[in-house]
Amino acid sequence: MSAFARVPASRAFRPAIIISEQDRHFVAEVQRLSGTNLSWCYHCRTCANGCPFVRAMDYPPNSVIRMVQFGLRQEVLECHTIWICVACHTCSVQCPMDIDIAAIMDALRRLALEEGAMIAEANILDFHREVLHSIKNYGRAHKLGIMLRYKARVRQWFADLDVGLRMLAKRKLDLKASRVKAMQEITRLFIPHWKRK
Amino acid sequence: MRGGELLDISYFPGCSLATSAKESNISLMESSKILGLNLIELDDWNCCGSSSASCLDKELAFALGVRNLSLAPPGRPLMAMCPRCLHHLRYARLRLNQEPDNRRLLERRWGRPIPADVEIVHFLEVLARMGPARLQAGQVRSLNGLKFVPYYGCTLFRPPALRRQKYFQGEMGNVLIALGGQEITKALSHRCCGSFLSAARADVVTPLVNEIIESALATGAECLVTACAMCQLNLEIRSTWEPKVPIFHFSEILALALGAQDYEGWFDRHLVDPRPLLQARGLIS
After folding, report:
1. pTM to 2 decimal places
2. A174 vs B: CB within 8 A
3. Is the dihedral of CA B150, B153, B155, B158 positive or negative?
4. Nearest CA in chain A to B56
């Protein structure tokens, strides 16, 4: 009885996954988009053991690979792991099969955005969007603008206020954005070429 | 890089060095001048896209890199200090070489040639090629056995797409040892600093940064010297470890040893004041 009691409730009653009902083409799609071969992975867990961020992930990197192989499309595209990964490439370097795991995460983020999947780490996506917004407007990243717009978006004005104020006091956040002169060249990167005049 | 002649190098500062890490930029320019490098800022450069462009849209990241390369004058190397910028520039060049048809298409769209043979070098690479003799010839102050951890972070050497290119692991240590510093090698020199998670998930970054700093203190270091402006910032703002440890930009320590005088302005911009340590070591007055 005690042995069963240790199984967490969430695990004990997880419904069975019927592999034949999953998306069989998912793995081929991820392989093509990422330029990696997922069947090289033999789940030694080196990536999971080396990853500095694994504690903040819901699935370790090798589990994500396994889930892709099983075709668990929705679970993968809605997981935290793909957004927590910062592409530090610790896993890609340590992988004995030379699989570029960060490239797999890139491909999965792209699919998640394209398919409108529920984004598990909305704040991280919001931050990326604000960085791109700044690049679109100035051609360069304007940190103060990015942080202010990000704070407005996530409505957490007081989180990190002390750090922000210290950075301002040390003149680390420029008030005025540095701009690219030929802005039309930047703007057009954000518009498909067939839409341009 | 011979004799006393100035060597022209195109220079890509990047957003961090141009703004929040100006102290790194200024000290880099000063060291370069003393060493006989004529850094010419790439005219009208744009952001390399940082992590965000490559996280959301790889093609946008590539396009941003291509525009930067299209601005590089032929015939002289393009130098960067920021590891992310270096990575994106090199990645763009690699793809232009691998996809010649794509390159011709982009040249038609941009209406100018895109040199895919421009040599893209990191500042450490330039120093390594110069050799220690040139460094020591320019040296004014000895680092007096300053115990430092060379903190390279993750991006400078790791990206798999670029792993068959030259890399200069250990070079930061070699340079500072040649200038009289004492390298501590057993800390977490290559552990990722948390990158952009510092903005959206500080709760994840703080324990990581503390781990890095703890490892440095445990091995007897007095400071960390970083190759990356983002690492420097994350190690300063996200650490809750006591005692506080000064985190230097590599170029600051280099410029100090080469005799730069206007260091007050740089160290004043640090969130952890490094001046007490440098005064104790007799490096500044």
Report:
1. 0.92
2. yes
3. positive
4. A110
